[in-house]
Amino acid sequence: MTITAALVLFAVIWFLTLLVILPIRIKTQGDLGEIVPGTHAGAPEVHHMKKKLWITTGVSAVLWAIIAGIIISGVISVRDFDWLNQLEPRE
User: Fold this and answer.
1) pTM assigned to the model
2) I need a labelling partner for 46 at 20 to 30 A (CA). Which of 36, 53, 62, 69 fits?
3) Considering only CA atoms, which of 46, 48, 57, 44 is closest in space to residue 18?
């Protein structure tokens, strides 16, 4: 795996993890009963963004290490997903 591939893999995992973690423990204006005029009741009031970004980075680092280890070890390769036999045969 090249450095670029490793960075792209980490970025994809980081953003996917962020999208999973964002809605956890969010307090909306509707939940707190203090809706600011002109905003939606589902708008976040308390979002804990800094803490969520640190959690996202930690979880992403663990997931990246596992996935990169699997890729580097060769346990799973691109040939495992070649169901239509389009890759050239191994020599």
Assistant:
1) 0.79
2) 62
3) 57
The Cα–Cα gap between 27 and 35 comes to: 12
Show Cβ contacts of residue 39 under 8 Å, excluding neighbours closer than 6 positions: 29
Is there a contact between 1 and 72 (Cβ–Cβ < 8 Å)? yes
Reading the block at residue 65, the tokens are 């290490």
Q: What element of type H or E holds 19? A: helix 3-21
- pLDDT recorded at residue 4: 97
Cα–Cα distance for residue pair 79/62, rounded to 1 Å = 25
pLDDT score recorded for residue 46: 82
Residue 78 tokens read as: 């691109």
DSSP character at residue 90: P
